[in-house]
């Protein structure tokens, strides 16, 4: 069996914390920011943890077990 490659798109989007949680950036923060109110854009600045249902598949994409 050849070695498993990590998914290049995933390694740019997800990050593992020291405690083992997987974080990602919020969507909707790239363009058209004039339309969105300040409260919304400030909330979107913060990183968020991946949903519990998606953790297994994201770990597999990152090459983690």
Strand order of the largest sheet: 1-2-3
Uncertain residue ranges: none
Radius of gyration: 15 Å
SSE series: HEEHEH
- Structural class comes to alpha+beta
Give the CATH class: Few Secondary Structures
Number of strands: 3
CATH level-3 fold name: Factor Xa Inhibitor
The number of helical elements comes to: 3
Query: What is the level-2 CATH architecture name?
Result: Irregular
* Proportion of helical residues: 25-40%
Strand content: 5-15%
Tell me the span between the first and last alpha carbons.
17 Å
Number of domains: 1
Biggest β-sheet strands, sense, barrel: 3 strands, antiparallel
Residue-averaged pLDDT: 95
Backbone shape: elongated
Structural summary, described in words:
- The chain has 65 residues and is of the alpha+beta class.
- The chain has a single domain, classed as Factor Xa Inhibitor (Irregular).
- It is 34% helix and 12% strand.
- The protein is built from 3 helices and 3 strands, in the order αββαβα.
- The chain has helices at residues 8-13, 38-45, 55-62, and strands spanning 14-16, 22-24, 48-49.
- A 3-stranded antiparallel sheet has the order 1-2-3.
- The longest helix is centred in the middle third of the chain and has 8 residues, at 38-45.
- The relative contact order is 0.25.
- The mean pLDDT is 95.
């Amino acid at each position: 069996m050849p070695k498993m490659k990590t998914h290049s798109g995933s390694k740019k989007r997800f990050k593992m914390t020291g405690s083992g949680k997987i974080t990602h950036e919020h969507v909707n923060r790239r363009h058209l920011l004039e339309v969105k109110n300040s409260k919304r854009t400030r909330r979107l600045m913060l990183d968020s943890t991946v949903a519990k249902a998606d953790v297994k598949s994201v770990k597999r994409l990152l090459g983690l077990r």
